[in-house]
Amino acid sequence: MRKYLFVTIAAALLSVAVPAAAQDSGNAAKADEYAERYNLLVSKLGADGVGIETVLNNWAAVAPDDVRMLTGRFSYYFSKSQRTEVVPKDRNRFMGSGPVLTLKDSTGRDVNYFQEVFYDDSLYTFSMRCLDKAIRIDSDRLDLRFLKAAALVAYEKESPDMALAYLEKLADENMLVGGKWTYPGAEVSDTLFCDLIQECCYTFFNIGSSGSYSAFYSLSEKMLGYYPDAVVFMDNLGSYYLVAEEDYKTAQKYYSKVLKKAPDDYTAIKNSVLIARRQKNTKQEKKYLQMLVGVSSGQEKLAAEARLKVL
């Protein structure tokens, strides 16, 4: 699946090359000059480097409704709003990642430390206002919509309630006005929209919290309602029951539905192998291992073949 979103939001806006909205010729030329200067500074200094705020302010003075400037401001203030700390947590994973280090406390117990991003609320709020204005000006820009979703996910961390609500509303809007979207550098289609939503689903799943698993399930279920033949969302529901609920029977029900529609679906086959193994169902494991050999390659294929010989 082609990747359209970026894990690091600032990286998604290292340049602003999308054409500006209509302006008078004099201001348009100045806006283009500021856009070039901004892109040069960001390429050398990062999204919140020294001097970038001045360029953005001067740019805003001549082109206050330039979407490029507004997304640049979002990127600058969103980056400025963040600080990273290493904090102890009584768990093995946080936001989908393992600890950056583990130390012993006075009793000899392991204490895990994780990197966590904290936000200055005033700077974050201002960054989102800039992005919201850009969306109002160019409401058909699908990349801006998903950029906002990514920012909400990053801010909410393990409880992505606002992000889920925003994405569900976007899915509803897509069904009502599908075909109006634009996406710089890509041809817009149902496949593109589903790919973008699936990246958000993957992010929810990877966070690995109760709230994010719930968001993963809800968004996947909504999309499956709109796209009943999109097996990726059916796979998602199976993965929810497999990982979040450890309900192997229900998980297998979804994977079996997937395989009826797409017999070579890797996710359904691989996870069916895992379910059979956990249930100690040798017959089913052999069945799905044979299928896995057909859809895998390299070391995974060799491992599946070796496992078949043992069973």
Secondary structure: elements and pairs:
Blueprint: H1 25-45, H2 52-62, H3 67-80, E1 82-89, E2 101-104, E3 110-119, H4 121-137, H5 142-156, H6 161-177, H7 190-207, H8 210-226, H9 231-244, H10 248-261, H11 266-278, H12 282-295, H13 298-310
Antiparallel strand pairs: 1-3, 2-3
Helix pairs in contact: 1-2, 2-3, 3-4, 4-5, 5-6, 5-7, 6-8, 7-8, 8-9, 9-10, 9-11, 10-11, 11-12, 12-13
Structural summary, described in words:
It is built from 13 helices and three strands. By secondary structure, the chain is mainly alpha-helical. It has three domains: 1-81 and 120-137, no CATH class; 83-119, no CATH class; 139-228, no CATH class.
Question: What keyword list fits this structure?
Answer:
311 residues; mainly alpha; 3 domains; three-stranded antiparallel sheet; 13 helices; globular; disordered N terminus
